[in-house]
Design a protein that fits this description.
Strand order of the largest sheet: 1-2-3-6-7
Number of helices: 3
Structural class: alpha+beta
Shape: globular
Radius of gyration: 15 Å
Helix content: 25-40%
Number of strands: 7
Largest sheet: 5 strands, antiparallel
Distance between the termini: 21 Å
Oligomer: single chain
């Protein structure tokens, strides 16, 4: 398994390239991403976190696990007005986390594992994780959603931990 990139690797600030078709190679990347996500353990992973600069994400916020949603080119079509706070972290910046406020529910369009365009509603932790992964695919980190003072404090704390 590939190692997760560590902040401030420049690739974490680079937007992922769109996926044009679902191939065996894409399935292999998704499989590796799920293995890395499970090993953390985490509730999602973007391909860019492994240095794979393609718009691929996996999310599994299920209690039982083993229900990962594989997504290529995910995009948010609709976000609820109601917000939800959640303590977010990333293996790219270990040892720190922050409370981030995001829409409680989102409707996402993506290409699924069968190569079909799918629209799906995600709520709660699923929605938070999907939004977090889409941020990664756009070259954003969760701490970019913090104000400057909180972001600077978090990055200083991360340097001490790392």
């Amino acid at each position: 398994m590939r190692a997760v990139l560590r902040w401030p690797d420049k690739r974490l600030r680079t937007a992922a390239a769109p996926v044009t078709e679902i191939t065996d190679a894409i399935h292999a990347i998704w499989d590796e991403m799920i293995a890395v996500m499970e090993a953390m353990p985490g509730v999602g992973l973007a391909a860019t976190q492994l240095g794979e600069m393609q718009a691929l994400a996996v999310v599994d916020a299920s209690e039982a696990r083993g229900q990962a949603v594989r997504m290529a080119n995910p995009e948010i079509l609709h976000a609820s007005m109601q917000l939800r706070e959640h303590q977010e972290a990333s293996p790219c910046l270990p040892g720190v986390s922050a409370v981030i406020e995001r829409p409680r529910a989102v409707t996402v369009r993506f290409i699924n594992a069968e190569g079909e365009i799918e629209e799906r509603d995600f709520v709660g932790l699923w929605a938070t994780s999907v939004q977090h992964q889409i941020d990664h695919l756009q070259g954003r980190m969760y701490f970019d959603r913090l104000g400057r003072v909180k972001r600077d404090m978090l990055l200083r704390r991360a340097r001490k931990v790392g």
